[in-house]
Write a structure and sequence with these properties.
Length: 342
């Protein structure tokens, strides 16, 4: 089995098109055509995890967080990112990250694991993403087949959908082939670049489709089976999520029934969480002044970044093992949480 076989399956579940613009998910080191031996699954590709992979003869690390978020100008080992990249390349170890694209899926997503741990029911995406846009492209007949193949290849990588229409468009400089193509809104720039790369004789229209995809988006909201007092629910969160500390806003002395969650840094969803009617919003990385934004509308429970995403390791291991039953995919034994509590 090749590394690209595992990547292809993971990207069926969490297409790269769903990652946010700032993200760097995907294959960071290594060759997709390498034969894969064994894999280590982790949240962070730290030096300790890399050493663990080497010791266990694993040539693939599957991480939630990309080890590289921005461009590197030097590789001299001056920081842990450079050291990991150098050592991974030296030891022929591939590093693959599946980050905000996994955050943004409903089924088998990061937030669904939090909901499962807390026993939430009737769950749904908190902020669904807009679905698709449609590109109608007119091109010279001579490049139509090449354009179609490129668009369809792109669709396989991005979750878009290509349609091969045989009709001809009407043009002042002769007949042209028409290619109809749908793609995720987040991929508009890549689609335009691809179309324009075929030359100036191409014309196209981009048409927004107003539907929202209820299976894709940020955060999740659901219901507890029975209402519970706020302090009691905080105790449940602390136990189920192994949270050493919960930073929270003032309690309202009301029962908790509806709960919103967002793995990782979720403060950007505070208004949507309040609008959903959530009694408690569980996430991480709230800044001091952002706690004021709750305005008694709900309780914010900041349990820590690592704590909200820790079960992602188990999730990825299950996903891979169910598909590739004879493949050895191990959960890391390294706790990569960089935050300690006194």
């Amino acid at each position: 089995m090749l590394i690209k076989d595992i990547i292809s399956y993971l990207e069926e579940i969490a297409p790269p098109s769903l990652q946010e613009s700032y993200d760097n998910a995907g294959l960071i080191t290594g060759n997709p055509n390498w034969k894969v031996k064994k894999a280590i699954i982790c949240l962070d590709s730290t030096e300790a995890v890399l050493d663990e992979a080497i010791a266990n003869k694993c040539n693939l690390i599957i991480a939630h967080h990309p080890i590289v978020f921005k461009g590197l100008k030097r590789f001299n080992g001056s920081n842990y990112v450079e050291r990991v990249i150098i050592k991974a390349i030296k030891n022929d170890i591939a590093i693959y990250a599946i980050h905000t694209n996994l955050d943004n899926v409903f089924a088998n997503g990061v937030n669904s694991m939090i909901a499962k741990s807390l026993g939430l029911t009737n769950t749904k995406i908190l902020v669904p993403k807009l679905g698709l846009e449609r590109a109608i492209v007119y091109c010279p007949l001579g490049i139509a087949d090449s354009l179609k193949k490129s668009l369809l290849k792109f669709s396989n990588l991005s979750g878009a959908q290509g349609y091969d229409y045989s009709g001809l468009g009407i043009s002042t400089d002769g007949p042209k082939a028409r290619v109809d193509f749908q793609y995720p809104v987040s991929q508009r720039g890549r689609v335009e670049n691809l179309i324009n790369s075929f030359g100036k004789e191409i014309s196209y229209d981009l048409i927004p489709l107003s539907n929202k995809n209820s299976e894709v988006g940020a955060g999740l909201v659901g219901l507890l089976k029975k209402p519970i007092a706020e302090r009691a629910f905080l105790a449940v969160i602390q136990k189920k999520m192994s949270a050493q500390v919960i930073r929270h806003t003032k309690l309202r002395n009301r029962p908790v029934k509806k709960v919103a969650v967002c793995g990782g840094s979720g403060s950007f969803l505070i208004n949507q969480a309040k609008a959903s009617g959530a009694d408690v919003f569980i996430t991480a990385d709230f800044k001091y002044h952002e706690f004021f934004d709750a305005e008694k509308g709900m309780v914010i429970a900041d349990i820590g970044h690592y704590e909200t995403e820790q079960y992602t390791i188990e999730l990825l291991q299950q996903i891979i093992s169910e598909k590739f039953s004879n493949f050895a995919a191990y959960c890391t034994g390294v706790n990569t949480n960089p935050v300690y509590y006194f």
